[in-house]
Amino acid sequence: MSLKYDFFLNEKVTDLEPIERLLKEKNIPYSKKVADRRIYFDAYEDLGFEICIFRENTSYFEYQIHDTCHAYEWNDCTCVSFEVNKFFDNQKVKSNMLEMIIALFKSNAFDALLLFNGDVLILDRKNGKINPNLESGFWKSTDLLTRLENQIH
After folding, report:
1. Does residue 64 contact residue 110 with C-beta atoms inside 8 Å?
2. CA-based radius of gyration for the chain
3. Is 2-152 assigned to CATH 1.10.3470?
């Protein structure tokens, strides 16, 4: 059984090299497959997730934080989906996933959203500013939040 995190990028991202480069640098065994206009990286055993990358013509997002409703409608966006093994060490999975996201942030200047199960906002980036949703529960470990802040500033 798995959990799902979707990292939406507000543009058609063509440079997905940071993901593959990071896997190679860390000597993580993985398999890569292209099927149905999707790219799959399977590192389930070592990282605790499989990555699926695909493009969407239009995506609509709506969520609420502090009694304020936020809504986005993006055209031509890219989704980097993390299918997480729920039996894998939770902190290790989050750390591994955050490392992938930071690599993508460093190589692109796009707006982005990280959602858990399609409706819980974990973080967003608007106009270059990254905003973690501290109410989401994802950031219970201050180590993750510190890593995010140190890596992108």
Report:
1. no
2. 15
3. no
